[in-house]
Design a protein that fits this description.
With about 300 residues, the protein is mainly α. Helix content is about 85%, strand content about 0%. It has helices spanning about 1-25, 30-50, 55-85, 90-100, 105-145, 145-155, 160-170, 180-205, 210-235, 240-250, 260-265, 270-295. It is found in: Cell membrane.
Length: about 300
């Protein structure tokens, strides 16, 4: 229980501080988000891959697992949409909130506090797959454009280039001069608290409304997704820390940037915004339970 509280309480405190800042100071959240997306998060990914002790097999199996999980969840949402005759707009919204987890703001923070550096480096690998889905594949799915359009979006992501750079440094055992690696590491350490503050600020400006749709969408994200991940993890032979991270990261609430994507490329933005709030608040009940299960 101490491990769970030590993971959840610091995360909740930082989000709460962001919420207070959002309600009182009303900062420019777009500028903070740009700093996080274009500087801090890429630095965290590059440093994590540069310093990682994971084998290529660990990386491949985690990314493969995330890909299969996303396809399974997409298929389940498609089936639900057909059974209940959901409109295309609602189907897109439900798909987005179900398959796009908040592995950056929440996932990295909780795994870092709960499972330490070894858990964090695995969580970063999961987040890379999630970022590709969020910024590369999801816009094409929402807008209905093809695979090539999704690839173009992916190649514009700083996270992707940071990933390639970190892997290259690791593979070729490059020693960076003038302790540049320490500067990158410091930037990476700032990524998690800044991301949580941004989440708190965004929650401060989002209206809370809970109806049948929001509860159903939240149950898909917070309950169904980790259950499917648990079954899939066993099927893939994931064990130990790999299995724990795979399930925990799959249990995260809906990514905050989902509402931005839906607004830009298609879907019901108000529904998505309400679902983000409900899943984020609900995760403080479901995630501790899942942490308890996987760390027993």
């Amino acid at each position: 229980m101490n491990v769970i509280l030590s993971a959840i309480i610091p995360v909740g405190l930082i989000i709460f501080l962001g919420y207070v800042v959002g309600r009182t100071l009303r900062p420019d959240v777009q500028s903070l988000s740009q700093i996080s997306v274009y500087i801090l998060a890429p630095a965290l990914v590059a440093d994590g891959l540069y310093q990682t002790t994971l084998s290529g097999q660990n990386v491949i199996i985690l990314l493969l697992g995330f890909g299969i999980l996303s396809v399974l969840l997409y298929g389940l949402v498609w089936l639900i949409a057909k059974l209940f005759h959901l409109s295309p707009l609602v189907q897109k919204s439900l798909m987005a909130t179900t398959i796009l987890p908040n592995n950056g703001n929440m996932g990295l923070s909780i795994t870092s506090f709960a499972l330490g550096a070894a858990g964090l480096e695995r969580a970063i690998i999961y987040m890379i797959g999630s970022s590709i889905l969020l910024f590369g594949v999801a816009p094409a799915l929402l807008k209905g454009k093809g695979f090539l359009d999704g690839i173009r979006v992916v190649l514009k992501l700083p996270l992707i280039w940071a990933m390639l750079w970190g892997i290259s440094l690791r593979v070729f055992a490059v020693q960076l001069p003038f302790e540049i690696d320490k500067a990158i590491a410091e930037l990476g350490r700032a990524a998690i608290p800044v991301a949580l503050i941004i989440l708190g600020i965004q929650l401060a400006s989002t209206r809370l409304a809970i109806g049948k749709y929001e509860l159903f969408a939240a149950s898909l994200r917070l309950i169904l997704a980790p259950f499917v991940a648990w079954v899939l993890g066993m099927a893939l032979g994931l064990k130990g820390l790999d299995a724990q991270i795979f399930i925990i990261q799959s249990a995260m609430p809906t990514a905050v940037n989902t509402v931005v994507l839906v607004t830009e490329f298609g879907g019901d933005a108000p529904r998505v915004a309400r679902t983000i709030v409900v899943t984020t608040l609900g995760s403080f009940l479901t995630v501790p339970f899942i942490l308890w299960l996987v760390t027993r």
